[in-house]
Write a structure and sequence with these properties.
There is one protein chain. By secondary structure, the protein is an alpha+beta fold. Among the domains are: 76-214, Rossmann fold (3-Layer(aba) Sandwich), CATH 3.40.50; 326-414 and 682-694, no CATH class; 479-580, Dna Ligase, domain 1 (2-Layer Sandwich), CATH 3.30.1490. A hairpin with a 2-residue loop joins strand 14 and strand 15. Helix 2 (65-72) packs across helix 7 (195-226) and helix 4 packs across helix 5. The longest helix is centred in the N-terminal third of the chain and has 32 residues, at 195-226.
């Protein structure tokens, strides 16, 4: 049995896989004490399966603890030790403007208080040590940290990725002198050049690690007491690692939650499609989107969270603040807006009956008939239609609109936020979204999927049987993974097969401690001499340099439209992942497929239609024609007229859009990725019309 538990902003999801049988549970997240919600979900799903904790062989865990702590700025009291004269490195940053025309755009609040910025009297250059670490510096810095009552310290000295001698001396002394102090060292966290990104990543690692150590420590105690295996924690890169290892490196699991969903989407895209899908995870608080190509989710070597760069491998997920709990509001200009503020788990949407009074996307869906007023959501949440109507009615009065028009506007505006997110990972990167199926998951994703697919010209949906808990499902299928990277700067005569193979071998030996039977995934960061940034070129552990150069030039032409046959190619860095393949579960459709059939009125395109509702897990081969609603155990799939659906052997609902009649507009000209730049898409135009009417 494989157990996966994912902590979201509103719900905590659990999946227990017993061969092909899938058992799922949702419970409310317990903010501030997430481990309590985790154990409640574990107990519930094990009971649902009629199993015992000792039956579980593997327990994988995804979380948002680190992400939330970083966004809410409630990490450890952290100090920074930098080379003398460079303590203000994080404030100086890159001197760029995130918003070109917003000259006074605020920068992120520094994570390091002014009194905790310390300087080490030393200097290392690109060719070695220029000024030795001054006598007594380790003792002086340790005393300063003790006096400042720091919980954690980040050490980031110049050129330590080439020569870490001084960083190593400081770290050894501080760990011996102050055993309760967490020490993050840049040459251990990120041995790569670009000191600002290296410093930012190391500081975030130090800022989050004590918090994660406490959380994961409590979780390990609880799982051990329950007789469960020690948890493996999802990393941002899409693999799992032991909780003890993760607790020492907080920056590596910042995107733990979204990574599980991306891995689950890649597995289902292979099982129920051709391996090409756009993952679309809409939960209660946010929406995460990703691209799965040929069965593999795309990865990136960096990510910026709330303006702070983290230069570590991550699953390439783009996030926007549009979830079921996102709040609708009127801006100062009179326009209808949705999010990014969310009702969260407490009090939640108004219809949850927990004290929420502001209108959310979930409240709007309830009024439009996408959710049933007499239904109970996963996690035992009963819906209160009157509370939803009151909340939406207040906003409608502010906008001078009918409440139902306001509810429809909330849904349309939220859809446009998610369409824009999908365009970021497709159109803006030269990817035609119409080549992909849309794979919606999360509690709210399938409810909005058809409208978003039509907006992007997509004619195929893959709605997994466990779509409401797919992030937890993905945890069960994750590989065990350990990533590392190194800056090498090889070009010309130095770019030889022997030099490359030697560097990879050294990295593999250093990173592979405690891992047996791994396979290596290697990506080479390459650029032309004089360029500022590199392109990723996948390769093997002993590549032919000429082949690497050829593939780099092909990648450069694909990205920028040209290549430079006379340009000197530089191998900037090597990124290595050691992977132990995880289980490859194959979920099966529900055996009995007991379905409750009913009908309710649902609003489609301003028209109320009597719509069939199929509640339960449909068996393989079950078909349906839109309009139809599938009420799955943890999610609701809404298919408007013009869609057909069939359940495949894995329990995935495969929905296809009916081809357009000759009189309808050509989607190639009207879908948002192909209209003239600056022109609104059809859905954007409708959302804009709602705003204009509100004004």
């Amino acid at each position: 049995m494989l157990l996966g538990v994912d902590v979201g902003g509103t719900f905590t999801d659990a999946v227990l896989l017993d061969d092909g049988t899938v058992h799922t549970v949702k419970v409310p997240t317990t903010p501030g004490e997430e481990s309590a919600g985790v154990m409640a979900a574990v107990d519930a799903v094990i009971a649902a399966a009629g199993a015992t904790p000792t039956d579980v062989e593997d327990f994988s865990h995804g979380m948002t603890v680190g992400t939330n702590a970083l966004l809410e700025e409630r990490g450890a009291r952290t100090a920074l030790i930098a080379t003398k004269g460079f303590a203000d490195l994080l404030e100086i940053a890159r001197q760029d403007r995130p918003s070109l025309y917003h000259l006074c755009a605020p920068k992120p609040t520094p994570l390091i208080a002014p009194e905790l910025k310390l300087e080490a009297d030393e200097r290392t250059g690109p060719d070695g040590i220029l000024e030795p670490l001054a006598t007594g510096e380790p003792e002086r810095l340790a005393a300063a940290l003790a006096d400042a009552e720091a919980e954690s310290v980040a050490i980031c000295l110049l050129f330590s990725y080439l020569d870490p001698t001084h960083e190593r001396r400081l770290a050894e002394h501080l760990r011996a002198r102050l055993p309760d102090l967490h020490v993050s060292v840049s040459h251990e966290v990120l041995p790569r050049f670009r000191e600002y990104e290296r410093a930012s990543t190391t500081v975030i690692d130090a800022y989050l690690s004590p918090l994660l150590a406490r959380y994961l420590g409590r979780l390990e105690e609880a799982t051990a007491a329950a007789g469960l295996p020690a948890p493996q924690v999802m990393l941002s890169s899409g693999g799992v690692a032991p909780a003890e290892e993760t607790a020492r490196a907080g920056a590596w699991s910042v995107l733990s939650g979204p990574a599980g969903g991306a891995i689950g989407a890649s597995l289902l895209a292979r099982l129920s499609g051709d391996g090409n899908a756009l993952g679309f995870d809409m939960g209660g608080t946010s929406c995460d989107v990703c691209v799965v190509e040929d069965g593999t989710v795309r990865r990136s070597d960096s990510r910026t969270i709330d303006g702070r760069p983290i230069q570590l491998p991550t699953v390439d997920v783009h996030t926007v603040g549009a979830g079921g709990g996102s709040i609708g509001w009127r801006d100062p200009g009179g326009a209808l807006r949705v999010g990014p503020r969310s009702a969260g788990a407490q009090p939640g949407p108004a219809c949850y009956g927990r004290g929420g009074t502001e209108p959310t996307v979930t409240d709007a869906n309830l009024l439009l008939g996408n959710l049933a007023a007499d239904s109970t959501l996963a996690g035992g949440v009963a819906l209160d239609a009157e509370a939803a109507a009151r909340a939406v009615g207040v906003l409608a009065a502010e906008l001078e609109l009918d409440p139902l028009e306001t509810a429809a506007g909330i849904v349309r505006v939220a859809n446009q936020e998610m369409v824009r997110a999908l365009r970021v990972v497709t159109v803006e990167r030269g990817v035609d979204p119409r080549r992909f199926a849309l794979l919606p998951f999360g509690g709210a994703g399938p409810m909005h999927a058809a409208a978003i697919a039509e907006e992007l010209g997509i004619d195929r949906l893959l709605c997994p049987r466990a779509g409401g808990v797919l992030s937890a499902f993905g945890l069960c299928a994750s590989d065990r993974r350990r990533d590392t990277a190194r800056t090498v700067m090889l070009s010309g005569e130095d770019l030889t097969a022997a030099r490359i193979a030697a560097s990879v071998a050294e990295m593999r030996a250093a990173a592979g401690a405690g891992l047996d039977g791994t396979r290596a995934e290697v990506v080479y960061g390459m650029r032309y001499a004089g360029q500022a940034f590199e392109l990723p070129v996948p390769g093997d552990t002993e590549p032919d340099p000429a082949d690497l150069v050829t593939r780099f030039e092909e990648a450069h032409k694909d990205r920028y439209g040209h290549r430079d046959p006379n340009g000197e190619v530089v191998l900037v860095d090597i990124r290595l992942a050691l992977v132990i393949d995880g289980p490859k579960p194959r979920p099966a459709a529900a055996a009995d497929g007991s379905i409750e059939e009913s009908t309710r009125k649902v609003r489609f395109a301003e028209e109320w239609i009597d719509t069939p509702v199929l509640r339960g897990e449909p068996p393989a081969g079950r078909t349906a024609t839109g309009p139809v609603i599938f009420e799955l155990p943890e999610a609701t799939l809404v298919l408007p007229p013009g869609w057909n659906a069939e359940v495949d052997p894995h329990g995935t609902i495969v929905a296809t859009r009916t081809p357009q009649s000759p009189g309808e507009e050509d989607p190639e000209r009207t879908s948002p990725q192909f209209v003239r730049e600056g022109s609104p898409s059809p859905g954007e135009a409708r959302a804009s019309k709602e705003s204009e009417r509100a004004k």
